[in-house]
Amino acid sequence: MSVLRTPARRRLAVAAALPLTALLITSCGYGSKADKSAAASPAASTGGKKLSADQVRIGYFPNLTHATALVGVQRGIFQKDLGGTQLKGTTFNAGPSEVEALNAGSIDIGFIGPSPAINAYTQSGGKSLRIIGGSASGGVKLVVNPKKITSESDLKGKKIATPQLGNTQDVAFLNWLNTKGWKVDPQSGKGAVSVVREDNSVTVDAFKTGAIDGAWVPEPTASQLLGEGGKTLIDESDLWPGKKFVITNIVVSQSFLKAHPDVVQAVLKGSVDTNKWINANEDQAKASANDALKSLSGKALKPSVLDSAWPSIKITDDPLAATLQAEANHAVTAGLLKKPDLKGIYDLDPLNKVLASEGQPAVSDAGLGTH
Fold this sequence. Notes:
Number of strands: 12
Number of helices: 14
């Protein structure tokens, strides 16, 4: 089902693309497939020291680009660092839905793409969230039906899916179309290429039936399309200097950061510990992420899909802040955002304290920090 076919999702998607004067999204409805409760950490808090909050509510996606959250929750790494403070997880299908939940106070911390984070920050006048860490780079591809599309020029007149209006992949694709000089209305998706906004959960079936001709999507959806005969036309990493760009950040509501800095630091410690384990144990990490996906969706990824998807995702503590401004500029070019002032969007002090305790170098906010 397209995200534009339900009133709630239409309102949410349009709100994500409003100019800086737009109001915060505060509704508590997340759409039909956006508010799945994730299983609590298996290492439930029993006897650990409770921090300043009884629980912390964390949002993330059932995507491999959110492997830090998938693995960290599934293996109980976050819960171990949280001690007696209980972790409660909720999964979402796209960033604007997760932003809505963060703004409504339904979650406290979220793993999310850069575009929804930028939108939320600018729409609130810099008051809604802070980016406090990185999680992943890469893992996004434009996969097409090779019977219909063999070159970039063949995209004209075709239907290409993105996960949701205003989400990170939607912005990236609209920006890329602009670099080609192809006009597409950012709201309707109509133009030289038809941009179809639909949940990743239905994209593979739409591709199989011919309802779409390709999709600009994150992993594992991209590799699932490859498994159905699709071909990679563009790997987004190839469009960035050094092939690095932020695909997943860690954000926190400013109110929760102010009220519970110890809990935020514990979550970041869990993230750093998880990332270290993932990068040191590739095969086990893949299996753990797949177990988490099975728990959340009821179905594990095929080994061929997992093996295809995993290498394109780089797990990192660094939020790659220098690429955030570029992604904001892309949203401006795409016509989804007025030129934003991102000063203060990052607060990396808690993360850098964790990294220092681990003997690791500090990461940069690229001049977009709170200081």
